[in-house]
């Protein structure tokens, strides 16, 4: 569901609670999902992290949204891109845009990360593309990489938020 730019700026400042979701649910109010799927394309050096993130969110228990590569007869909803920003503190960023949204993986930080940490960043950012906001320590959607530790897959609260949003 694509939202207007005004909603995007509001989303950047925090969590919004929607509809009849439980008070503990964490939703952005925006996502990269189009007709229950995310079609993606990529130009990132972190293919392992991207593949892991897609498998983590598109598995047998979290399969309400189809996450698939863009094809000749589809339109991309999400682009995986590298960034090399020294002026920011983020290692990954999901950004809603007109047209395809983007997940930026910041080479400035990820080049020094091991495979596990890079996978955690990519899985977290794909969670945002699915509409999930930051949640709690011990969850993939915690708000910072150090608190995420070695997590690389959605945890119990992440899964509950996903199912509250997508069924």
Major sheet description: 5 strands, mixed
- Distance separating the two termini: 16 Å
Q: How would you write the strand order of the largest sheet?
A: 2-1-3-5-4
- Measured by DSSP, the beta-strand proportion falls in 15-25%
* Number of DSSP E strands: 5
In short:
With 167 residues, the protein is α/β, with parallel strands linked by helices.
Key features of this structure:
5 strands; alpha/beta; Collagenase (Catalytic Domain); 167 residues
Explain what the structure shows.
The protein starts with a helix and ends with a helix. Helix 2 packs across helix 4. By secondary structure, it is α/β, with parallel strands linked by helices. Strands 2-1-3-5-4 form a 5-stranded mixed sheet. It contains 6 helices and 5 strands. Strand 4 and strand 5 form a beta hairpin.
């Amino acid at each position: 569901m694509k939202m207007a730019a005004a909603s995007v700026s509001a989303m950047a400042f925090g969590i919004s609670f929607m509809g009849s979701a439980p008070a503990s649910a964490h939703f952005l109010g925006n996502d990269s999902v189009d007709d229950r799927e995310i079609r993606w394309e990529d130009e990132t050096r972190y293919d392992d992290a991207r593949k892991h993130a897609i498998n983590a969110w598109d598995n047998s228990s979290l399969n309400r949204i189809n996450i698939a590569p863009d094809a000749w007869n589809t339109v991309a909803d999400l682009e995986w891109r590298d960034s090399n920003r020294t002026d920011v503190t983020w290692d990954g960023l999901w950004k809603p845009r007109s047209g395809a949204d983007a997940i930026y993986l910041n080479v400035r930080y990820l080049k020094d990360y091991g495979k596990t940490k890079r996978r955690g960043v990519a899985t977290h950012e794909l969670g945002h593309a699915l509409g999930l906001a930051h949640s709690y320590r011990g969850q993939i959607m915690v708000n910072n990489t150090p608190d995420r530790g070695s997590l690389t897959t959605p945890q119990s609260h992440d899964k509950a938020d996903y199912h509250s949003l997508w069924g």
